[in-house]
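Let's inspect a concrete specimen:
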Amino acid sequence: MKTTAKIYQVLLTVLFSGIILLCFLNDLFSFYKVPETSQTENRKLASKPVFDIGNLDPYPKLYENYFNDQFPFRDYLGFLNTMICFFVFHQTPLPGEVEIGKNGWLFYDQKERVVYEGKFMLTDRQIRLMVDELHERTLRYQKKGIRFYVAFPPIKPEIYPEFLPVDFRRAPAGTVTDKVIAGIQSDTVIRYIDVKAALLKAKSHDRLYALTDNHWNWIGAFYGYRAIVDRIGQDFPAVKPLTLSEVSFKAGGPLEGNLAAMIGLTKYYNEIEYYPVLNQTKSKLLPSPHKQPDWAVQIQNYEEVRSTGDSTLPSVVIIHDSFTDVMKPYLNESFNTNTYIFDGWRYLRNEEIIDDVKPEIVILIIFEPHISHMAGKF
């Protein structure tokens, strides 16, 4: 046994030394050309720094970055490590970013765990100012004859805590979202729509979020949409949500989820995506009538306009982020004209567009971890 252990130790030492030596030999002779960009990380790899005797301080760190990026067969070895970690040891190859839950569910560590566990929090003053801003928007829109609604699609851990890794713990004193919602609900003016409650009810008969992505799927978006339109229908009786008799979900191609992409496994770990098929669609895409602001020239899909042409229905402006994208097919059919504004996660008032469009309704839809973006100005 001792002899066998020593042999393994020697072999491991030789293998490790050989890999290190291979890296230096390749640096000298360039027998293996490393690609300029990493396909799995979607970034340009570090280039070899120039040695300058008069500027030595930054050189060690620059060379370390170069060495880490340029060792031979880097992508192949990284992929092998990913496959072994994920499929053999059932561990994440990207700790601190993507975590593996029960039954193969993936969770977004960096963005969502800090909210879920209460590690990210706003001050009482910031929360109060956010609530004051929503209060002020409600009153300003009201003077223009507009009703204003607010909704926060929740993170995946809030809907599926039973599949979380064992070391995820919800904040015992409540999350920042809980505190913002409590502030909103204590205000008698703001119209808040509870999307989370509708999803918790619907999860008993449908899967609402992707296994390999942190977003809800088309089915989850449908129930989120229904919660929003049901509430608006209380104030506008002509507005009716689509029903399951008007929408079916058909299996399509594989979903290459963003979390699977982050760990480089979209080809080997994916899921079937179910797309909505509406029995009848009336909405049509219209040209965007407004010039994109100079500060927003880099934003794709800054404004999108669709219309059913049904003047018996109210028109709506929706200020949103990516969580609203998969609600659009349903929302498009529920109003006269839908004007969608994505302002780069700023969630601004966008009053110039609203004053021109003159909708009866404005909806602010913010994915839960992005609620704090509104606090940036305070």
In short: The mean pLDDT is 86. Residues 2-29 form the longest helix (28 residues). The two ends are 67 Å apart (CA to CA). The CA atoms of residues 49 and 55 lie 11 Å apart.
